Protein 1
Amino acid sequence: MAALLKAETELWPVDKLILAYFGFAAILLLIWWTTIPDAPWLLGAHVAAATLLAWELWHPNRTSWAFRHWYPVIYVAFCYKEMALLVPGIHPHPADQWLADIDYAIWHAHPTVWLERIYSAALTEYLQIVYTLFVPAVLWVAWLLWRKRRFTEFQYYAFLIALGYLVSYIGYLIVPARGPRFLLKHLQHAPLQGLWLFQTMQGNLDRLESTAYDCFPSGHTELTILAWWGARKVRNSLSWPYFAYTLSIIFATVYLRYHYTIDVLAGAAVAGVLLVAAPPLYRNLQGKRGLQVGRS
C-alpha cells in the first residue's frame, strides 16, 4: 500500500481541514497566551503533529497508508482533550445558566428533573451503555468501509466525521457549558443508579473527558446522526440499527443529565447543515481531483 502513496503526495481534504484547525488553534493560543494553561506545550504539540503529517506525506513508507487514513482519530481526540485548557482560558464564564433558562422557557420545566418520574435502574444501565459506546459506534462505520476496501468513501467519511468534531469544538469555545448534571444537581431528588456497570462506565467517561465544557452543541447527537448517514452508505440494512441507536443516544444525553435539550437541537441542526455543506466543501478542497462523493 505504501507504494500507492508515492504518487499521493498531495494533501487530502481531511489533511487541509485538520491543518486549518491547527492554525486556528495556534492563533487562539497566541492571543490568550497568558491565560491558557500550558499554552507553550499545546502549541508545540500542534507543530509536532503537523510535522509528523508532513513527514508521512512527503516521505511515504510502510506506515504511511494506514497513518494517512487513520491519524485523524488521534488528532481529533487531542483537539478534544485540549478543550479542557482552551475553554477556561478563553471564555472563563460558563453558559450553563443561559442554556438551562432556554430549556425552561421551552418546556416550563428542567427536562433532567422532569425525567425523574420515569427513572429505572434498568433504563439507566441501558442508556449509559448506549452513551459509552458513542465513539466505537462512529468508528465502526469507518472500519467497515476500510475492511471492504472502499477507500474513497472511507476518506470522505473520515473528512465528514473530523469536520463534525471540529465544528462542535468551536461551539464549545463560543458557548462553554458543563451540563445540567453539574448546574442542576441541587434540584435533582436522587442520583442516577444503574444495575451493574453504570458507575464504572460513568466514572471512566468522567476521567477521559476531564473538566470538559462540551455541551453545546451536543456532539453525541451530531456525530451519531452523521454515523447513521454513513451506515446507510455501507449498506441499507445497517441504517436501521444505527437509526435505533441514534434515537437512544439522543434520549440518553438528557436522561443521563449530560445535556440540555437545546444542546441536542443544536447538534441535530449542525448535523443537518454538514450533510448538505460537506460534499461541495470536500470537492472544493480536492480541487481538480474532486470526486463525486457524499451524495445520496
Protein 2
Amino acid sequence: MSERIGFVGVGRMGANMARRLKECGLNVAAVYDSRAKSAKELAKELGCEACRSLAKVTELADVIITVVSDDAAMDEIFAPTGKSLLFRAQGRLFINCATVSPATHVLVQERAAKAGATSLEACMASSITQARQGTLYLMCGGAPQAFERAKSVLEKLSNSMRYVGAAGQAAKVKALVNMVMNINTAGLAEGLGLGQALGLDLSMLREVFSQTGANSRVLHTDGEDMQNRDHSCFFSAAHAAKDSGIALALGKEQKLKLPLAEATKKQYDRMVAEGLGDLDKSGIAELTFKGRHGKKQA
C-alpha cells in the first residue's frame, strides 16, 4: 500500500480513479495527460505532480495506471525507444485499463518485460460513476504475479474483479462484453423507436420490457435516457464504434460472421460520421426515433 501511484490518461475515467485512490489513502504521486491542462488541474486538486513527460511518471511512480483512448495511444506511451513509460522502468508495474485489442496488450507485456517491468490488463466493464465510487467490475489478464501485486490497488477501485488468464485474454472477454452491450443498446433503441411511432406510452413499454424477455441491463441504464433524449456521456458512441470494431476483428480472425455486431457498428459509425459521436451510446436512439435526427438535442 506504500507504493507510489501514477496515472497516464486523466479524462473522466482516469481522473475519477485517481480521486478514488487518493481518498483511500494511497500515494497518488504523478499524473500525465496529452491535454496538459487536464493534468495540471487534477494535480492541483490531488496535491501531486503534473508530469510533462511520460518518463517522468515512471520516475515518480512504482505503479502506473494507464487509461488511454486506443491502440495507437498505447503504442505511443509504451514505445520501445525514447522517453516513453518504459524509460528506466525496471521494477515498475503497469496496470492498463483501456479497451484496446488483445494483441496490443500482449505487445505491451512483451515490451515491459524487456524493460524489466511487468504489466497487467485491467479491463473495466463499468463507467464514470463506478470509477468514482470504487465499484468497477474488472477483468484482469497477465502474469499471476502481476495480478497479485496489483490487487491492493485494484481492490480500492472495484467491488468485483476476475483474473481471466494470460495477457490478451481479459481484453478478449471485454471485447465480447462491449459487443453484446452495444447490440442490446441498438436493439433497445429500435424497440422504443418503433413503440413511439406506434403511439405507445414509452414508460409503459419500458415497464413491460422489464418484466419480459425484452429485459436487459441497458434497458435500465439507457431506456429512460432514450425516451427523454438525455444523452449525457458516460460511454460515448465513438467508443462504442471502436469497441465493436475490436470484436469484429476477432471474429474475422476466427472466420466467423457476426451480422448483428456488423449492423450495430454501422449504426455507431453513422453517429460518428454525422457528428453524434460524443453523445452517450444511448444516443443511437436519435437514429431510430421518428423526427429526431438533425434536430437540436434536448
Protein 3
Amino acid sequence: MTPQALDVRSFTVGPVQENAYIVRPAGAPDAVLVDPGEEPERLLRAIEDLAVKIEAILITHCHFDHIGAVAPLARATGAPVYCPEIERPILADIMRWVPYEGFGPYESYEADHTLSGGERLTLAGLDIDVLLTPGHSPGHLTYAIALTPAPAGGAEPPASTRAGAERALLSGDVLFQGSVGRTDLPGGDWPTLERSLGRLLDTFAPQTIVYPGHMGVTTLARELATNPFLGELRSARQPSVAQAAPARSPAGS
C-alpha cells in the first residue's frame, strides 16, 4: 500500500487562540473537522472554499475553547459529533462549565457518538486510532491518523502503517510546541498527564508530526529533545544527555 499525504488545514480561532483543523487525504472530497472552538462562520467559509464534505466532527476534550462552535457547525454540515465519553455532559451544558467571565455564550450540543479510547474509526477515507490521554482533562483523547488509506473490508493495515512513523497526531491540549496542557483546571492532574505523554512517546516514532490544540506544529522528537516539561521523560530515555528543565508555566485551556 502506497503512503498517502494528509491535507491538514489549521485555523487559529477565538480569543484563546485555539487550533481547529480540517483533515482529509490529499485531494479527497471528504474531511473531518477537529475541535471547532470558535468562529463558526469562518470555518464554514473554509469548508466551502475547500469544497469538502465534513463527514465527522471530532473533539479531543470539552474545554469551551475547543467546543464553542460545535453546535452551529454540526447543524450546518449535518456531520455527527464524536465526543469523549466522560466529558459528554460538558458539551451538553457548555456555559455551566465555562470558568471565566466574558466568554460565550456558546450553544450546547448532545454528542452523536462517544469515545473512551481504544476505538478505530474509518471516516472520510482516514484510518483513525482513538487514544485516551488524560491529565489535562479527565477524558482527553488524541487522534492518531494514518498516512495511508484504510483498506477495504475492515482488514488490518500493514504493520508499518501502524508503527507511528506514518501517522500524525491531533493532540489537543496534551502536548504543545515547547509546552504541555495546564493541569490546574478541574480534572487536571500532572502525574496523569506525564503518563499520557510517556505513552505517546513509547507508541509513536520520533518523527511523528504533532498538530496541537494551541501554538505551532511540532514532532515528538523535537519535544523530547527540547520541551522543558518532558525533562523526566527525557532523562528516562536519554540519561546521558538529559539536562535539567527550566521552570515554565504550562499552556492551553
